[in-house]
């Protein structure tokens, strides 16, 4: 073997060592660069995701606020309607309690009128005293029953004529009677719980 060949053999291992060190350095650099990229990517991705989540939450909050306001408006309107219905119902029930018997009372009044006429006629018959007593008792029972339901007679005899309660049938000159007062009652008037259901038919002094 020549001296030249021997020299080439000795140089070759040194070159290979240098090339190996360069390759190792490039490989390490590539690994570090890759690790750096891998480390940065999750943070950027997380930031983007958080930003998207915030926007989505904000939109959901605005939507819920709108729904809440609409629900509140509906609840206020419903409460107002409920109050109106309750007031109307209470008024209707109160009127029903007060005036439900008005028709019933109007049916009974002719009976009272008839009985009063019978009593007046019986007063002229001496032999019918028992009949008069019985009719007086029956009439009292009728009046007591009506009073329990709020029926009362309209005060008429001797009082000043009131067009709200009296119906003038005629006018008469009557000595000692004050003009404009009721001198005679032809048919009694009645009220039901303070409301007039039939005016009294009267004769007015002039």
Verbal overview:
The protein has 206 residues and is α+β, with helices and mostly antiparallel strands. It has helices at residues 3-99, 102-122, 129-148, and strands spanning 151-153, 166-172, 182-187, 190-192, 195-198, 200-205. The strands form two sheets. A three-stranded antiparallel sheet has the order 1-4-5. The chain starts with a helix and ends with a strand.
Would you summarize the structure shown here?
With 206 residues, the protein is α+β, with helices and mostly antiparallel strands. It has helices at 3-99, 102-122, 129-148, and strands spanning 151-153, 166-172, 182-187, 190-192, 195-198, 200-205.
Using brief descriptors, characterize the structure shown.
206 residues; 3 helices; alpha+beta; single chain; 67% helix
> Biggest β-sheet: count, sense, barrel?
3 strands, antiparallel
Mean pLDDT: 79
Shape: rod-shaped
Number of helices in the DSSP assignment: 3
Helix content: 55-70%
Order of helices and strands: HHHEEEEEE
Radius of gyration: 56 Å
**N- to C-terminal distance:** 174 Å
Strand sequence of the main sheet, in spatial order?
Answer: 1-4-5
Q: pLDDT under 50 segments (min length 5)?
A: 2-11
In percent, how much strand structure appears in the residues?
Answer: 5-15%
Number of strands: 6
Task: Summarize the SSE layout with pairings.
Elements: H1 3-99, H2 102-122, H3 129-148, E1 151-153, E2 166-172, E3 182-187, E4 190-192, E5 195-198, E6 200-205
């Amino acid at each position: 073997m020549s001296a030249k060949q021997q020299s080439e053999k000795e140089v070759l291992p040194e070159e290979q060592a240098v090339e190996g060190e360069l390759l190792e350095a490039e490989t390490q650099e590539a690994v570090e660069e890759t690790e750096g990229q891998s480390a940065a990517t999750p943070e950027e991705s997380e930031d983007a995701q958080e930003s998207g989540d915030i926007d989505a939450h904000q939109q959901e909050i605005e939507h819920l606020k709108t729904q809440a306001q609409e629900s509140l408006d509906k609840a206020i309107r419903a409460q107002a309607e409920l109050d109106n219905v309750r007031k109307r119902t209470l008024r209707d029930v109160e009127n029903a309690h007060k005036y439900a018997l008005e028709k019933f009372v109007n049916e009974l009044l002719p009976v009272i009128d008839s009985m009063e006429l019978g009593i007046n006629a019986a007063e002229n018959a001496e032999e019918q005293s028992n009949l008069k007593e019985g009719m007086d008792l029956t009439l009292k029972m009728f009046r007591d029953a009506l009073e329990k339901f709020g029926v009362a007679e309209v005060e008429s005899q001797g009082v000043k004529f009131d067009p709200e309660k009296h119906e003038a049938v005629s006018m008469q000159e009557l000595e000692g009677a004050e003009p404009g007062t009721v001198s005679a009652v032809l048919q009694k008037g009645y009220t039901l719980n303070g409301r007039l259901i039939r005016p009294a038919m009267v004769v007015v002094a002039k």
